[in-house]
Design brief:
binds protoporphyrin IX containing FE, disordered N terminus, three-stranded antiparallel beta sheet, six-stranded mixed beta sheet, Cytochrome p450, 43% helix
Length: 391
């Protein structure tokens, strides 16, 4: 077993003024075994950077997703995410077999076929945003005017959440995922969203509609309290992540215009940007060996999906944008039982967003130098706070 002395103290590392993962990841990956990092509140965790090791962590049953275990690598006291004991139905924080009950109920709603049926709706949403941008003049903030409203409009319609409340839940989600928020602010944001959804469920009980929330209520597969947690998870997971991928995707595609119109860009952009690098957190519940390193029961593990997606052993010349490579084995959506439930939806949204945006606004360009763009260095999700564009 390899014992590693190196301890990264300024973790999470910062991306270097561009949409690509922090340069330190390559150095960490080159070390034998695993490397330890110290989180802001002093807790140490194991960083996992090799593609093969990340997949091992995400599939080993001796490693748990449950944040109530001692040693779980929360960023801050709550980690920005509630635990299933606080929010019943928060199944991303559960282990099998408990997790499977929720996952099985939801899978039929997110199959390739279901998402195909949604495509005309997604197209209408995207066209509506492009119409609004064109009507407003010849410049826009692509995040506020396009990248964020598209997935927000789609997920709210799918769930049955009123889009009119988007300012509320988008702001609360920003608080939840930001390192700049205090623990109290994050806890309050989580409680506000939960209270809002609980009220919505009461309304749907009185007046069911043709939406996922009403269907889940009618199926009676979970309690209303569990349903609140499930809807909260889908609402939070369903907009900010995709928005970041759309805005970063536009930046990368504008400097690789030879690929415009090719649907293979979607998988490669997901790999290249890996926005949810710090999302899949774990803790060992038994001793386990990962990448030649003994990880003891009770030790936290951070499988860095961006590092795995830039491992040259899995993707040749990983920093190169090459949609022709077969990147489907990337782990941008995680791996194993918790692999992203919304991935088919994301692929459809990104494909339709890029096709429509670049065909309807062919002269689109970024209205600021790349180094001046406000990248998100302050939260668990990487992305852009704003993206000034003109045409
Ligand atoms: C580009 C956008 C997205 C990325 C990069 C992303 C990434 C991820 C990752 C890495 C995980 C694994 C977490 C873990 O293992 O602990 C995950 C899980 C999950 N994602 Fe996504 N996600 C995206 C969009 C979405 C959307 C649109 C939805 C909503 C429908 C969604 C719903 C979920 C849910 C419910 C889980 C938990 C699944 C489970 O525990 O079984 N995600 N996502």
């Amino acid at each position: 077993m390899t014992s590693v002395e190196q301890n990264i103290v300024d973790f999470p590392s910062r991306r270097a003024g561009c949409p690509f993962p922090p340069p330190e990841y390559a150095e960490i990956r080159a070390q034998p075994g695993l490397v330890k990092a110290t989180l802001s509140e002093g807790r140490t965790v194991w960083l996992v950077t090799r593609h093969e090791d990340v997949r091992t962590v995400l599939t080993d049953r001796r490693i748990s997703s449950n944040p109530t275990h001692d040693g779980f690598p929360n960023f801050g006291r709550t980690g920005g995410v509630p635990a299933p004991d606080q929010v019943p139905g928060w199944f991303v924080g559960m282990d099998p077999p408990e997790h499977g009950r929720f996952r099985k109920t939801l899978i039929p709603e997110f199959t390739v076929r279901k998402i195909k049926e949604l495509r005309p709706h997604i197209q209408r949403v995207v066209d509506g945003r492009v119409d609004a941008m064109l009507a407003a003049g010849n410049s826009a903030d692509l995040v506020a005017d396009f990248a964020l409203p598209v997935p927000s409009l789609v997920i709210t319609a799918l769930l049955g959440v009123p889009y009119a409340d988007h300012d509320f839940f988008e702001a609360k989600t920003r608080t939840l995922v930001s390192f700049a928020s205090t623990d109290d602010e994050r806890e309050a944001a989580g409680k506000h969203i939960l209270r809002y959804i609980t009220r919505l469920i009461t309304l749907k009980q009185q007046r069911p509609a043709d939406d996922l929330l009403s269907r889940l209520l009618a199926s009676a597969t979970m309690t209303p309290q569990e349903l609140s947690g499930v809807v909260m998870l889908l609402l939070i997971a369903g907009h900010e992540t995709t928005a970041n991928n759309i805005s970063l995707g536009v930046v990368t595609l504008l400097s690789h215009q030879e690929w415009l119109g090719d649907t293979r860009v979607v998988e490669e952009l997901l790999r290249l940007h890996s926005v949810a690098d710090l999302v899949a957190l774990r803790v060992a519940v038994e001793d386990v060996e990962i990448g030649g390193q003994l990880v003891k029961a009770g030790e936290g593990i951070v499988p860095l999906v961006a590092a795995a997606n830039h491992d040259a052993d899995a993707f040749a010349c990983p920093a190169r944008f090459d949609p022709a490579r077969a990147a489907r084995h990337h782990v941008a959506f995680g791996y194993g039982v918790h692999q992203c439930l919304g991935q088919n939806l994301v692929r459809a949204e990104m494909e339709i967003a890029f096709q429509t945006l670049f065909s309807r606004i062919p002269t689109l360009e970024i209205a600021a130098p790349l180094e001046d763009l406000p990248f998100k260095y302050d939260g668990v999700l990487f992305g852009l706070h704003a993206l000034p564009v003109k045409w």
